[in-house]
Amino acid sequence: MPARSLTHDCAIPGCPHPGRNQLGVRDRVAHSGASPFPNKKRTDALWSLETPMFLCDDHALMGGVVRLTFEPNTSQEIVVESSCCGTEFEARSKSINQPLSEAA
């Protein structure tokens, strides 16, 4: 059964087109060496989190600048804060399920 179609506004102010493309952040395994997480292979995500920001097809494909800042802490949670053209979106967070004690 197909998923229910949801309508989102494009994050670009004044854009009349629906936002059909969701921005997210993912931390992927980028090595082929031994992993402390046997179920995680090269390109598998250690974690991923979607933002509440959607772009229409045109804005998703025309290009732009994404600024990414990582501020480490010991919360074992990932928080993504997002904004577009001066508009702040709700912060989203997610627990990191990979045990830090097993990291290489």
Q: What is the strand and helix layout of this fold?
A:
Layout lengths: L20 E8 L16 E11 L1 H6 L14 E4 L2 E2 L2 E2 L3 E4 L9
Antiparallel strand pairs: 1-2, 3-6, 4-5
- What is the total domain count? 1
Q: What structural category arises from helix and sheet content?
A: mainly beta
Shape type: elongated
**Strand arrangement, major sheet:** 1-2
Q: Helicity range of the residues?
A: under 10%
Number of strands: 6
Distance between the termini: 42 Å
Largest sheet: 2 strands, antiparallel
Mean pLDDT: 87
Number of helices: 1
Detail the poorly predicted runs.
Answer: none
Tell me what portion of residues adopts beta-strand conformation: 25-35%
Return the string of H and E elements.
Answer: EEHEEEE
Features:
mainly beta; 104 residues; two-stranded antiparallel ribbon
Descriptive overview:
The chain has 104 residues and is mainly β. The chain has one domain. The chain contains 1 helix and 6 strands, in the order ββαββββ. A two-stranded antiparallel ribbon has the order 1-2. A hairpin with a 2-residue loop joins β4 (83-84) and β5. It starts with 20 loop residues before the first strand and ends in a 9-residue tail after the last strand.
